Amino acid sequence: MQTFRFELGELSPEAEALRAEVREFLRQELGDAAPVRRAHSWGGFDREFSKKMGARGWIAMTWPKRYGGHEKSALERYVVLEEMLAAGAPVSAHWIADRQSGPLLLRFGTEAQRQKFLPAIARGELSFAIGMSEPDSGSDLASLRTRAERVSGGYRVNGTKVWTSNAHLADYMIATFRTHHDPAKKHEGLTQFLVDTTLPGMTLSPIIDLAGSHHFNMVVFEDAFVPEDMRVGEEGAGWKQVTTELAFERSGPERYLSSFALLLELIREVSKDPGERAAATVGRLVAHLATLRQMSLSVALMLQAGENPNLEAAVVKDVGTTFEQEVPEVVHALLGVEPTIDSGSDLQQVLGFLMQRAPSFSLRGGTREILRGIIARGLGLR
Amino acid sequence: MNELRTILGDVVTRLFTDLVTKDLLESAETGAWPDTLWQAAEENGLTVPLVAESKGGAGGSWSDAFVVARAAGRHAVPLPIAETIVGSWLLSASGLDVPSGPLTIAPVHRDERLRLTRAGSGWRLDGTATRVPWGRAAGHVVVVTEAEGRTLVALAARGAGQVKTDQNLAREPRDTLAFEAAPVVAATPAGRGVPAQAVWLYGALVRSAQMAGGLDDVLRQASQYATERRQFGKPIGSFQVIQQNLAVLAGHTAAAGTAAANAFRAADRGDAAFEIAVAKVRVGEAAGIGASIAHQVHGAIGFTYEHALQFATRRLWSWRAEFGGEGDWAVELGRSVAERGADALWPHLTAR
Fold this sequence. Notes:
A: about 375 residues; alpha+beta; Butyryl-CoA Dehydrogenase, subunit A, domain 2; Butyryl-CoA Dehydrogenase, subunit A, domain 3; 3 domains; 13 helices; B: about 350 residues; four-stranded antiparallel beta sheet
């Protein structure tokens, strides 16, 4: 039985050569940024930073040059990503476009859409959000109900999206709407659209998370008009398009590095006087981290080779987010310091931030339960 | 994957599938030596993958050896194949000839020492090594120890010392070898790349591969059982709670295979202490959790001697404790990380 495959691979010399350059850039850009800022990692939104990334050629790295890309390998992109995340760089303003929206347009968009959006994304000037979940459609994504009805020259949209991260900051949203309704075939009739976040008839309101931060939004469409030329792909092809990108979304370094800033603070603390219990705690976490990096890298290499490692990607995300969530628990168990918001030590603040952020790790990008269902299917159980 | 590795993979799978039957495993547990199986493994070069072809070996790498050790674990092969792989490497890397037949390695505990002293033109061996794998069955024991201020590798024949038999949970021999002014066949300064802790390190390395193989088997058995066993009118694998548990087992199995493979690759590059520690910690943790989930899925039948699950799980429970448990290795790993400091962690990880 060969259900999944994690072959070790080597990063190319070109990719490794890039690493030093990225580190030097990050050293200059982030300087002595506080650990709690770095802990925000891909939650940090900074357009100026994204433009600098674009100028360096570190966005759209694998895309064709005619769309502003740089025709580099997925492995070079991987090195840039993992260095950004390990350093806690604020990549959020270009992250979604680089990872999902751009590749979607590249694959399914019209030539006009590619010309219009891709070069600007590559320069770090266009920020994207993803409009998928709805009040009654979370894990059961195919049940979504926001309607896009054909009208002259385009579509009239009515419905509500929720948990739309950064919609209040982004320029565009890739939204999935229902263009055809047949209760027996809910995976059919979904269509993706490019939606301008200043669209008339669209109202944004913040959803404040448990820590008091605003990154989620509720987006209400009331007879909003989306022009025909903003449809991405064929009508009804939305489900297939959405699932195509999942391996890219689920196996990256962002699925095991979310608590890296806390691990660093833990090591800083323990290094002062590494007793046996503290050393064992650090050693165990590093063993998990080092293994996850190899697993994630293995999936990146399969993607580069044009394979479809959806099962392996689900495994990396499940094991990776379990690790990310364990780090604050382990730090609490070992040190027993209070997590804080803006007082106390760096370690306390990073712990406070990640303690409150950790529940989202196994929700975003497919819940733990959904991923394990995918793995179970791979094992032949369903 | 290179050609040798592909061939090795095919050979071990075919050989072990054909020969390592339930009857053979049961008979080995009563103390019988599966000689036909050993001969077949030796004839196919599975026991000496790292020895040069000119010296009768397969001329391969640690990554090739990984294929053999993992398969040996997957099939619960009741032979000192992993020990012979390490022993034959220690000898050949130090310029000594490799005798045919099964080898073992000693001492396996970090706080035990065997002493070599000069006697005329040769050497004499003294001391006691406990829990030596397959001590009674091995034709020779390969010893790594310090003498005259340097690391030496020595080869002693069966019969040079007294054997007191014992066993691990899987009823594999784990014997005490006592030497008293015992003759050695050969002794020489350890070759470059053979550290003083070589038995401990490379013992942990091969156990991590065997455990990764054991987990492969445990996952295979549990997934298959879940599709066959029916309760409440349907296969138990159709229940989400069973699916979720098996997905967790799959995650640990994937992590174990990756960590072990990475340690073998590091061994090919040279100093693999970091990756071996990572593997023993990560795979050992996976072994405990994996065995537990597999038994839960199997219910009462998996708790019987009749069912084959126990051949894998009893090995996992012993192997994770051999050549240092997760705790020992985690402390060692944690101290090395703390010593380098927080800011060195990421550069260190990405440079390896």
